[in-house]
UniProtKB/TrEMBL annotation:
Gene3D superfamilies: SGNH hydrolase. This is SGNH hydrolase-type esterase domain-containing protein. It comes from Coprococcus hominis. SUPFAM superfamilies: SGNH hydrolase. Residues 65-105 have a biased composition (Low complexity). It comes from the Bacteria. Residues 126-288 form the SGNH hydrolase-type esterase domain. Residues 64-111 are annotated as: Disordered. Pfam families: Lipase_GDSL_2 (PF13472).
Amino acid sequence: MRQNRNRVRLQKRRKMFLMQQKRKRRRRRQQIFMRGTAAAMLLFAFCISIRFIHMAKDRPIVEGSTQEPVTTEVSTTETSTTESSGTGNVKETLLTGRGDDTTTGSVKNMDLKSDDKSNDFSDAVFVGDSRTEGFVLQTGIQTTAYVHKGLTVASAYTAKVIHQDDEDRSVMEALARTRYNRVYLMFGINETGWISNDIFISDYKQIIDDIKAQNPSAKIFIQSVLPVSKAVSDSGGYVRNDKIAEYNKRLEQLAADEGATFVNVQEAVSTDGVLPDDAATDGIHLNKKYCEKWLTYLEEHTLDK
């Protein structure tokens, strides 16, 4: 009898031991599963954050103006060069770069001149986003403009938005194939959502360095980023006047470092770093009256440079 009782006890103990081991294995599997799930979620979150950073760098924050692009052809005066390309009439199409005789020769040692006061910008190229597009459209200045809504210092190299010589080119590719004496740059409003100010300045510097390499004699004007209205700045979005002010300080220093000219055009259209309510219906893109103020400022501060 005693042996039977002992045997029963041993069987119970063994059964309890086996149950404990089973529970331990189950808990271990659950822990492994939970750890694996947590690791997978962390990896997924990391991938999403990297993707967000990449998209934030390339995504236009300001979608663009309401103006429709036009294709008004602008002809400069007779062009002379010290190189073998000879003389000729340079024809560019406003905004899109379309033209039936776009010059593709070297841009070095160009000497484009005009005696017509209304053509003082005919030897220039304006490069920028939808705000520059609106400026050229509403002032009607005769110039060459490589612009596109949402353009950034990064997409100026990658987005094929300029149609030139029957090919779609990026802004920087088109610029390399264009004759000009001066170039007016305005970037920054679409980049206010970027994660780093240093990336913006680094990419901007690359544009300047490439322009200097392509056309060493060209005068480079870095225009300040225009502010937005108080309502837009306070709306909680990426576009904020304090960030724009930071960019403008960095751009002024960049111009000094690179031997370019910083043109503080915001002085002409803003008050205390804020765009007035009557300057733009959307608080961002200037109306005709303020575009003309912008033009007057450029005439007074850059045409004698």
